[in-house]
UniProtKB/TrEMBL annotation, chain A:
This is (African queen) hypothetical protein. SUPFAM superfamilies: Ras GEF, Ubiquitin-like. Residues 528-567, 590-633 are annotated as: Disordered. The keyword rRNA processing does not apply. The keyword Iron does not apply. Keywords: Guanine-nucleotide releasing factor. It comes from Danaus chrysippus (African queen). The lineage of its organism: Eukaryota, Metazoa, Ecdysozoa, Arthropoda, Hexapoda. SMART domains: RA (SM00314), RasGEF (SM00147), RasGEFN (SM00229). Residues 556-566, 593-611 have a biased composition (Low complexity). InterPro entries: RA_dom, Ras-like_GEF, Ras-like_Gua-exchang_fac_N, Ras_G-nucl-exch_fac_CS, Ras_GEF_dom_sf, RASGEF_cat_dom, RASGEF_cat_dom_sf, Ubiquitin-like_domsf. GO terms for molecular function: guanyl-nucleotide exchange factor activity. Residues 637-727 form the Ras-associating domain. One of its GO terms (biological process) is Ras protein signal transduction.
From TrEMBL, chain B:
This is small monomeric GTPase. One of its GO terms (biological process) is epidermis development. The lineage of its organism: Eukaryota, Metazoa, Ecdysozoa, Arthropoda, Hexapoda. SUPFAM superfamilies: P-loop containing nucleoside triphosphate hydrolases. GO terms for molecular function: G protein activity; GTP binding. It is a lipid-anchor.
Amino acid sequence: MLVRGCGGGELRHSLAERTKALAAKCHALRSPAREQRSVERRRPRNRKSQTRWYVKQPTWRLWGEEKVDGAVYTVYLKKVRYHRPTRSASSESDDEISHLEWETVRVRFVKAGTVERLVEALATDDGELESTYVNVFLATYRSFAECGKVLDLLLRRYQALASEDVLPATVDTSQQHRKTLVACLHVWLDTYPEDFRQPPHHPALQQLLAFTQLHLPGSELHSKVLQKLAVFSAERNGCVGGAGVCLAPGMRVLQHHTSAYRLPHVPHRHFAEQLTRMDMELFKKLVPHQCLGAVWSRRDKDRSHDAATVLATVNQFNAVSFRVISTVLVEPNLRPIERTDILAAWLDIARELRVLKNFSSLKAIISGLQSNPVYRLRKTWAILSKEKAELFEELARIFSEDNNRWAQRELLMREGTAKFADTVGENDRQLQKLLHERGSPGVSHGTIPYLGTFLTDLTMIDTAIPDTVFDGLINFDKKRKEFEVLAQIKLLQGAANAYHLPCDPLFDRWFDSVIILDDREAYQLSCQIEPPTNPPKERRPKNINNNSQGHRKNDSIASTSSSNSSQFYCETDGAGNAWKRDSLERRISPTRLSHGSSSSSLPSLDVSLSSANSGQKTANGKAPATSPAHPNKTGPDFYIIRVTYESDCVETEGVVLYKSIMLSNNERTPQVIRNAMLKLNLDGDPDSYTLSQVLPEKEMVLPSNANVYYAVNTAYNLNFILRPRKPQTEAIVNGKAKNKRT
Amino acid sequence: MREYKIVVLGSGGVGKSALTVQFVQGIFVEKYDPTIEDSYRKQVEVDGQQCMLEILDTAGTEQFTAMRDLYMKNGQGFVLVYSITAQSTFNDLQDLREQILRVKDKVDVPMVLVGNKCDLEAERVVGKQQGANLANHFDCVFMETSAKAKISVNEVFYDLVRQINKKSPKEEKNKKKPRLCRML
């Protein structure tokens, strides 16, 4: 019924068209409610035109509900207008248009039902395919039934129809019914082949094979099932090993070469394209139904693989943000203008991402820039050029949380499936300029959305709408609602195919080589670059951490109070105590030690990081050997050191790849080596490696159990080499190190 | 009317979204739509004053860790939620609170500690006293709630409004400036 009313949405339609039509329908359905609510709330905002994915809004009227055994339907009366299909250029053959202007049809939607009823509803009463319903069903059924169960019901229904003694008058309907069921199976296999993977034996696929052999031998469905089976078993048997072997050595070799890129002097457009390439690969692999609230927001450790593709996207988002934060902070000795250049470089990359319509990495960069450790660097931001500052504001405005993220929702609606970026606000001067300069690009771009908005929406839908209604019937209206969001994701995934971006392994290497700082590390570095302006009053009497405020006196207070609070936790219970102790240890020990270090007059240790505080000019990363002791400043709690791996078998072509690692002041040699190995992707026993600092004249090999933090020579660059241990060098090594250490 | 930006934070699965939906919608509505502008806005009367609350719920995006600072920068009051049925969600709050204080650069931020799902007494693993102790340590208000059974949900938000009022009795002029909004 619905199909006819809407002008014959059939299987032939591409997925995109189907989802578009559906989004339109769903939107039309909810429109009255929306308007009503808006009026109720009397929102002052004068909203401009709403661009949505439908052109014409049909008139729907709720007629009522209809209850049958095991299902409830919502019935609408729909006024259908018949209008001439608009031909783009010529309109010669207008003969087929009927004279009927409009009529009212009755449309029945399943509101809720048992699994059996929901499966039955895949075909309408006349046996026609209900393509919208089929799409909603297949996208969401996993939250209420297993694959095997649904398949079972489908096949049983087919068999029942086939064996029924039908009256001659209804033969057609019965046949149509069966045809529709087969069509559903086709859609299912094509759209969600993963459902049938079920390694190792693919039971559902085997069941389907048995079915087609019996009922539909030689049919298209039969051969499709055979083909899928062949693909799955081929994957299982041969190809896996081969691919793995190919990849691994390649990855290894890459590790030994340097990255050619170094912010801020990087090609912005190219960086934006490469980020987009990474995002696109993940976004295309994203399985939309893993975003459902029932899967994503209710996942726990045991079921984390259920949402693996979502998690991969989130991890990439974070990875980009972390890179922004770390590249801005990791070199403490930069002059302010050099650091500002890095901000500007990220903004230039972000601007290119806007043109590419990659809202995921765009938001990741903006989030990185707005993260506290970066955002609080007032002096650095203050010297950013006016244009760049404006650009930042305009890009940040896209992701404003105001009015339930209205700005980004609207933008995604406008540009989601458009060929290129063309939307700017009235006040977006920089973006206007940008789009004006670019004109309309020759190639069209896809779109990569920021997934978080969808995840929040789906979580809220899952929370707000009950799974079952009417004494245990599956609430299918909820599935429709969820599908509205899934359909958008699918549509954008389709659009993402428009990207054609080459892969640059050098970029991947750069991306991989950037150090990642955790919250606390980033904040500490940030405070060393620009100490907090407002002096600590009698700050945080109860607060455990915050010992890195850069004021010596605080340290002892902080550690005293923190031991108090650990007692506090001892009193409460065992479990709480355990985690507390762990996190306290992490926090207190650097404090205590660095306190010790500053009072035991080791001024040379103060320089590497805290020298940035004094605003001195060394820009080459080399800390001055004779830094004046800053009696009022604590020593840094950690250094960032660069470690290169050197082995006999690899030639490095005169270039050196290094990985940066954090070195905190309680880490001994084996731990540092372990950290370095982790970064450099090396396996094995830390004891079989040596670590040495590169000094102008020679190398200083660290003793096997030194506290590396205190052993390093901070008068020089903190560059290190990691080597497989050679037994004969041992003795000399220790000798050297001992000499050097004083 | 004064506007209050309230941020709901906590690990995944603690029922943040349920608290928000329960507060904003009151009842579980059939035609719920999370995508419209005022999905998370609610006008309430607290102590004889009309207030417009805008709730920013991080549900579904807990793992976008890089974005937390942003939420925190914007929020005026914070609901820190754990589930009384999962110890780990309780433990996670310490770090969240520290982050808030860092971002806000203040000692004292309007905050309520919430132990949710108190209808599931049989599955309780975090004792009420534990929650109270943590709140004492945080120097903030503590409540146990149930979004499902509608226990103490409104109180959480009302209390935050009172805390914000106490801290900054009059609306500061610069709060109205669009600049704040722009920075998210």
